[in-house]
Amino acid sequence: MLGVVRAYSVIDVFTDEPYLGNPVAVVHDGAGLSTEQMQRFAAWTNLSETTFLLAATQPEADYRLRIFTPVLELPFAGHPTLGSCHAWMRAGGTPRGSSIVQECTAGLVRLRVQDRDIAFAAPPLLREGPAEEETIAHAAAVLGIRREQVLDAQWADNGPGWVAVLLEHAEAVLAMRPGFVDIDLGVVGPYPPGAPEQFEVRAFFPKDGVTVEDPVTGSLNAAIAPWLLRRGLARAPYLVSQGTVLGRRGRVHVDRADDGTIWVGGGTVTCVTGQVDL
User: Is 132 a residue of the active site?
Assistant: First the structure.
């Protein structure tokens, strides 16, 4: 049965070059769609996330966003937030105030545009602190590394419930060949001083009984930034490389404002435009 024809885009995020970042599908007008319809379409696109732009329900917000993976709705996610903001602005959206305010299930998220990048203010962590030894040992086992290679591990939950693992250097991160990863895991390792990027990051999560590696992950980078800064491993602003093993060239810019707000951003590029019948 035919539905309503709606504008549709696919935006590549955390890159200035098309097809080297992490894509998000954006339906520009989700009005009238049920949760079931949105979830069905997200399962059909089979991208890591599909989003639906809607009119805001809170007076401070410029628009509302619903974010779906192929199997569930997320309260917040980083690269869908940036890609959807790009699509909203490209379609003529203008902010009411000095910054853009997105309404989503996790609350209100501020965004800003600087040069060619869009950045979001990292939402508060729902859980943080050292991971338990049992969790660390399990993470090392599923990642295919020795327990002693893990220098530190922290809970970094800002919606997606990441466990973040620190290795000695970026080469160790790139060398990993995980088995079945049954929890959401982020792995970070520093590059040598003077390198263009300060860290290599990889992100893994389970889906349909297999391990999925995310090309570039805004929520993870937002969640681990306070930890890296607090430990003195990073100094803001800094640049993260992600997606290297997958043949991508994701670049995530992380900064910290004077008020302590963590800003996470990167380039966004429109790769597909058209219409979808929903």
Answer: no
